[in-house]
Amino acid sequence: MCGIVGYIGEEQAYPILIKGLHRLEYRGYDSAGVSLINAKGELLVYKAKGKVSALEASVEGKDVSGTIGIAHTRWATHGEPNETNAHPHYSQSKNLTLVHNGIIENYKALRAELEKNNMTFCSETDTEVLVQLVEYMMNSHHCDLYTAVQLALKNVVGAYAIAILEKSHPDQLVCARKGSPLIIGVGKSATGRKEFFLGSDATPIIEHTKDVIYLNDEEIAIMDRTGRLEITNLANVKQTPQLVKLQMNLDELEKGGYAHFMLKEIWEQPNALRTCIRGRLNMADKDVLLSGIIDHKDKFINCKRIIICACGTSWHSALIGKYFIEEACQIPVEVEYASEFRYRNPVIHSDDVVIAVSQSGETADTLAAIQLAKEKGAFLYGICNVIGSSIARATHSGTYLHVGPEIGVASTKAFTGQVITLALLGLAIAKEKKTLSDDMFHMLVEELQMIPDKMQWTLEHNKGIDEYAKTFTYCKNFLYLGRGYNYPVAMEGALKLKEISYIHAEGYPAAEMKHGPIALVDEEMPVVVIAPKRGNYDKVVSNIQEIKSRKGKIISVVTEGDTVVKGMSDYYFTIPDTRDCYVPLLAVIPLQLLSYYVAIAKGCNVDQPRNLAKSVTVE
Ligand code: F6R
Known about the structure:
Elements: E1 3-8, H1 13-24, E2 31-37, E3 43-49, H2 52-58, E4 68-74, E5 89-90, E6 96-101, H3 107-116, H4 126-141, H5 145-154, E7 160-166, E8 172-178, E9 183-188, E10 194-199, E11 211-214, E12 219-224, E13 229-233, E14 238-239, E15 244-245, H6 261-267, H7 269-277, E16 281-282, E17 287-288, H8 291-294, H9 297-302, E18 305-310, H10 312-329, E19 333-337, H11 338-341, E20 352-358, H12 364-375, E21 379-384, H13 390-394, E22 397-400, H14 413-433, H15 438-460, H16 465-468, E23 477-482, H17 486-501, E24 504-509, E25 526-531, H18 537-548, E26 553-559, H19 564-568, E27 571-575, H20 583-601
Parallel strand pairs: 18-19, 18-20, 20-21, 21-22, 23-24, 23-25, 25-26, 26-27
Antiparallel strand pairs: 1-4, 1-10, 2-3, 2-4, 5-6, 6-7, 7-8, 8-12, 9-10, 9-11, 11-15, 12-13, 13-14, 16-17
Helix pairs in contact: 3-4, 4-5, 7-14, 7-15, 10-14, 10-17, 14-15, 15-20, 17-20
Fructose -6-phosphate (F6R) binds next to helix 10 and helix 17.
């Protein structure tokens, strides 16, 4: 949540910061702000409520010069989204400005203490407490900014990524992190001198440099114009910066001709999944090679149980993973909401494998859940998309999705990437445990290889939905039903619709409908039924009949060639036939398209839905 961008070098900072803020806007868009030190040594701050474009409009005609600056796009936690609560925040003397991502949990106690020492506050935010605390430390300990930050952060409980400017030292930029990501980009300006970029993820940095340093928890960095970069931890122990190359291309961050990132990411899925399985499926031997488990086979072969922790869409893919792994590997799998798991003293044994599934790799609850599991001795495996993310680094091993950056707030290609990665993991474990016959194993490998082509087919054959979606503009509720592997797909379809079109939707196991939700069904109620000609097909057909006899509108997802369910439906989507366990990879696509086009018909901002942000780095 929230995006931070920073720059120190020889270029004008403002254009770099604004472009960076646009790239980071998917992380939060309640307000935006920028702070610069100009050539006269003035510490300037400009802020605006709303999007980055509002900030741009508000600075027109004003002085935005300076070769050092920090900027922020906010997802509000403490204090409503307005200009006063927007970052950057000044310290009382206006010698410092600070931007912050995260939550300071003990900010009330700190604020009360600072107020006793005659410090006054303008905003309701925890962030202003942080900048005042740093200034208080500078004054009371007569120390420099760097030392003051160290002292201040020792008193702070919570998560933070911060960047600070000091008016009296216009040639240095200080930043720190704990629990919220922060990346330093190391570039070269036109004169060959080092310049530094800061980002709460790599997206604002990539167009300037691919050389980055991922700051670790409780590390503080200082960068200056001479090209000096020093990192220490809170205990003042010097750290050696590890320079790594970013594996990302700029065009992955552009819409590439699509109206929205979400639509681009839906259409990207066949190629994204081809990249995900490349090198992991060996078709000559019909084999699966997952480097993440090669050195840890014993952990998976001997484990008594697998626990998967995740949130939101990732929790849905985890549930599909559970069905697959239990069926293929005969290992019991529990799927946990990370936010519940971390607070209920769960029973975890040293022979448990705990898997974290997270697109961003930064979700605070998922990170805390695996930290708890680590303390209890479990083996940790991460399934993340963002390379170098906190969860990827906190786990013992893992597999990256490699589906490319996901910018649309509503997750699409990460979901299918997670499902296919969990299937690869299940197959790799099944191979080691010999829980599948050779024939079955080979057949599942062959079929998995065909999924990207079948996804392409699904996209090409379900194009008419944009017109039909207009019918639902005035709907208040939707019901989504599926059985077995498709029950999590029903929940995922409902979540997509809720998130971006603000229509209430519920995903249910189809058979559970008669235990409650059927009471909601009337002629106004669209019911989306995932009804492939597989598994419990006949039972799903009965469920559809039950809905029809109560005049509910049926929108179905059917297998190509099916005439029965088609005939019973008001609208249908077609998918190619595949094995039960892979149907979610195809069935979710029309549901993504349905939610997208309903949201478009309602005039909603698809890529930046209200109240949501991409990466939930706060509890
Ligand atoms: C829904 C969505 C969220 C995320 C959830 C977890 O479209 O994107 O529900 O799935 O916030 O995020 P990650 O996967 O980054 O841990």
